[in-house]
Design brief:
Length: about 280
């Protein structure tokens, strides 16, 4: 599932492909992909729009249009955005297709169909519930401590909560907790001030490292897995210290990496290094 580093990679790599491009016809093959407005309005309003700015908030991609409107894309489990020549035939996973004035097309492909697209004048309501953006000044050790204070839930579950910190998902939560030396089942409110500072630093570091490696691509490259807009994989999976390394030796102490389920998600950790 694409998390902050994967979405950031999309934004960076789509920028040169889409900047200044104008949209012609839009086809929507799976109406539920369009969260807002209704499909007919979307198809009318997107025509003639020009891609102007490229940003991200948490796991949401923000494609700003010259009109002032924003095309917001959330890839959810298996969404992909690709720019392809118009001669490429859309496959059964292509749910939205925008013609571009370059003679290419922007395809939204999504095997699991959980991904969503919004065309809005004001993006604030869609993004309203998101917590601080981790690689910005809005995220701080003190702020993280305040959000965790009094929370009984497991810190792993709280890191997945987009109102605590925007953009962190299962991979980067596991990797951050390992780097911080914190057991995933510790209660969020029970962390010491020193641990909160370590966790803050680990979240920032793991996300920055993930972006530098163009994200994590797991398993064989396919429509089910994260790929960059070019179809190339990211490489951060080569730096995972715990995620999906169940039974393999901890890179620090040699103990086998364990797997438990927290908040219905697999959690990978070192029982020796993470207290
Ligand atoms: Zn260890």
């Amino acid at each position: 599932m694409p998390e902050l580093p994967e979405v950031e990679t999309y934004v960076r790599e789509l920028t040169p492909l889409l900047a200044g491009r104008r949209v012609g016809a839009a086809q929507v093959f799976w109406p539920r992909t369009i969260a807002a407005p209704d499909v007919a309005t979307f198809q009318t309003q997107i025509i003639g729009q020009e891609f102007a700015t490229f940003g991200r908030r948490g796991k949401y991609m923000l494609l700003g249009l010259a009109s002032g409107a924003t095309l917001i894309v959330h890839l959810r489990m298996t969404g992909h955005l690709q720019v392809e020549p118009a001669s490429v035939t859309p496959d059964k996973h292509t749910h939205v297709m925008l013609d571009l004035d370059s003679g290419e097309r922007l395809l939204f492909r999504d095997a699991r169909k959980f991904g969503r697209i919004w065309l809005v004048d004001d993006s604030a309501p869609v993004l309203a519930r998101l917590g601080p953006e981790p690689l910005s000044d809005d995220f701080s050790p003190g702020g993280l401590g305040a959000l965790l204070a009094g929370r009984q839930a497991a810190i792993k579950a709280l890191l997945l909560d987009q109102t605590i910190v925007a953009g962190v998902g299962n991979i980067y939560a596991d990797e951050a907790l390992f780097r911080a030396g914190i057991h995933p089942l510790r209660s969020g409110g029970g962390l010491t001030e020193v641990e909160v500072v370590r966790l803050y630093a680990a979240v920032c570091a793991v996300l920055a490292d993930g972006i530098a490696a163009a994200g994590s691509s797991l398993g064989v490259s396919s429509i089910q897995n994260y790929q960059r807009p070019s179809g190339a994989p990211g490489s951060f999976q080569e730096q995972h210290r715990v995620f999906q390394r169940t039974g393999q030796p901890c890179l620090v102490c040699g103990a086998p990496i364990a797997r438990i389920v927290v908040a219905q998600r697999s959690s990978h950790f070192c029982p020796h290094c993470q207290k």
